[in-house]
Design goal:
about 200 residues, 3-stranded antiparallel β-sheet, 8 strands
């Protein structure tokens, strides 16, 4: 009799153990099923999904000169992009640096990125927006880089222009690109083409 009771007690513990394991398994399966709609496969980076930045134009000036300099760029057959027109079909100005204290960083820096590389002439200008004390000269470094399909970013142009007075606008580069994003030989010049202060 005692042995029978012992067997029944063992069987009830076995049943409880199996029930607990089964309930835990059902709970795990339920959690996986609930999570499935939220799991998205990692998409391969195609040209359509890559971050913008086929033509990258950067402008730097010394942090010790807290003056407002503006970057202006123009893609082929489009309106200029700068602080009062932050985006066009091709370019976007991602940073308008006023050159004053209170910046998140101590760098004086503006940058424009393009989506795609339309063929034609590009113009890059530096414009002295704010007042500039007499005798102060601001060296402004401008760099143009390209990121073509399946290639690393390549710096293609680099220059420094000097700004000496309010309203001064200097053309750092005029250049042409092909449909494949190649710099057209002999197309680079600094022939002045004003984008902000009137055409010339």
């Amino acid at each position: 009799m005692r042995g029978l009771d012992h067997l029944e007690e063992q069987d009830s513990w076995g049943t409880v153990f199996r029930d607990v394991i089964l309930l835990a398994l059902i709970g795990f399966v339920a959690m996986v099923i609930m999570l499935l709609p939220h799991i998205q496969p990692v998409k391969e980076q195609t040209d359509e999904h890559k971050a913008p930045g086929n033509v990258i134009i950067e402008m730097h000036w010394p942090a010790s000169l807290p003056y407002d300099v503006d970057l202006w760029v123009q893609a082929p057959d489009e309106l200029p992009v700068g602080f009062w027109n932050l985006g066009g079909q091709t370019f976007n100005l991602l940073r308008d640096d006023l050159g004053i204290e209170g910046d998140a960083t101590d760098r004086n820096y503006e940058v424009s990125y393009s989506r795609g590389i339309p063929a034609g002439e590009y113009i890059v200008n530096a414009h002295m927006y704010g007042p500039l004390p007499h005798g102060v000269v601001i060296p402004v470094n401008i760099v143009v880089s390209l990121k073509r399909r399946y290639e690393d970013t390549e710096q293609i142009l680099d220059t420094t222009v000097e700004l000496r007075r309010r309203g001064q606008e200097e053309t750092a580069f005029r250049f042409r690109l092909t449909t494949e994003g190649q710099l057209v030989e002999g197309s680079v010049s600094t022939l002045c083409r004003r984008l902000v202060t009137g055409s010339k």
